[in-house]
Amino acid sequence: MKPLLFTFLFLMACPAFCADEGNISAATETVRIGLAQSIKEVVVEMKGISVVTDIESGRKFRSTKPSLYRVKPGGEGKTEMAGKILGPELRIMPIEGQERVRFNGKEYRGGVYIKLNKDQTLTVIEEVGLEEYLYGVLPLEMGPNWPLEALKAQAVVARTYTLTQLKRFSDSGYDLSADVKSQVYGGSTYDYPAVLEAVRSTAGEVLTYKGKLVEAYYHAACGGHTTSPLWDDDVIKPLRGVFCKFCRSSPNYKWTVTVSNSKVLDYLQSRGLSARKVTGIKSVKKNRSGRTLLLKFTTDKGSKTLDAKEFRTVMGNTQVKSTYFTSIQRKKDGFRIYGQGYGHGAGMCQDGASEMAKRGRKYKQILEFYYPDSEISDWRDADK
């Protein structure tokens, strides 16, 4: 049926209505996911019965037909929807259990909040149960067709990581971002049987060390050795890094890329070195796993030492796949970097976890290998 443009009826708040409004159990940990930020108009589609709540006034508007909600800034700290001026924050909820919210080409299980920002743009936030959130993370952060035991390990790791990051975006009104700044999340667009089984069979399980949640980082491929987080000097034992032989068959185990002279020069000039020619790039400081921390650039105007992680980001994280550089050679057209692994290298190596699962290892064995001395606990019992 073709959606109607926001057909609604004003409802007075009543206990019976409010009891049916939510579709998230109060007994389940919920997370708020930033789906979009700094946008001028929000379009949300609902296929079934839904209700819009003006958070500031408490007014509720109910639609009994498929609806297309359009929300934009209304001026003076207000929002506007279907010609009505409403408060700075709205909530759109399905009131039938299996209905989904559709936004920006994806479907979501939870209620969607639309929040007006100080700069008169809008932020879209989904509130969803922790376990349901993981249904939308695993297919994009690992893959729905990966071995089940690897998916189970990923479920525990992603659940743990989620709970350690809940305050990161609190100033923006949500817990985690739906992109690589947190974990890539696709909502309920992707419901795969293996993913659902992996999440459900590990429900509530997290990694702890001495009773406290482990910051369970993970990455695509370690290239032979996982590393301690490069950004953390005080590292607990589960995150100190381990020798890993399991990702040797990964296409990301070893790689080569050439960065052009012009791109390197642009980077150096943006960092205050007005050079015309780069004659050398050398790793001058590495951590114990072999990742480069600092790079020294030699030019016709002198030399400069810069952060390797920043260099990788500027050159492109998908091109320079890690800072695990084994060699950097000067070529006519630029600098050829030989490296290993893909990602920051901390925590679980996903390609390694996949190989371990293919060899018959269970998810608890995978987690024990990549996070030595950690324990699997119920998240409700962990010290957050």
Any chance you could write out the topology, listing elements then pairs?
Blueprint: E1 9-11, H1 15-21, E2 30-39, E3 42-46, E4 50-54, E5 60-63, E6 67-75, E7 78-81, E8 84-86, E9 89-94, E10 101-103, E11 106-108, E12 111-116, E13 122-129, H2 130-141, H3 148-164, E14 176-177, H4 193-201, E15 205-209, E16 212-213, E17 218-219, E18 254-260, H5 261-270, E19 278-286, E20 292-299, E21 302-307, H6 308-315, E22 325-331, E23 334-340, E24 348-349, H7 350-358, H8 363-370, E25 375-378
Parallel strand pairs: 2-14, 17-24
Antiparallel strand pairs: 1-5, 2-13, 3-6, 3-10, 4-5, 4-9, 6-7, 7-8, 9-12, 10-11, 12-13, 15-16, 15-25, 18-23, 19-20, 20-21, 22-23
Give structural notes.
By secondary structure, the chain is α+β, with helices and mostly antiparallel strands. It folds into three domains: 9-130, no CATH class; 135-248 and 344-381, no CATH class; 254-340, no CATH class. The strands form six sheets. The chain has an eight-stranded mixed beta sheet with strand order 1-5-4-9-12-13-2-14. The chain has a six-stranded antiparallel beta sheet with strand order 8-7-6-3-10-11, with no helix packed on it. It contains eight helices and 25 strands. The radius of gyration is 24 Å and the shape is globular.
Numbering strands along the chain, what is their spatial order in the largest sheet?
Answer: 1-5-4-9-12-13-2-14
Structural class: alpha+beta
The count of domains is 3
Rounded average pLDDT: 90
- Described by the principal axes of the CA atoms, the overall outline is globular
Radius of gyration: 24 Å
Q: What is the number of helical segments per DSSP (H or I, 4+ residues)?
A: 8
The termini sit apart by 46 Å
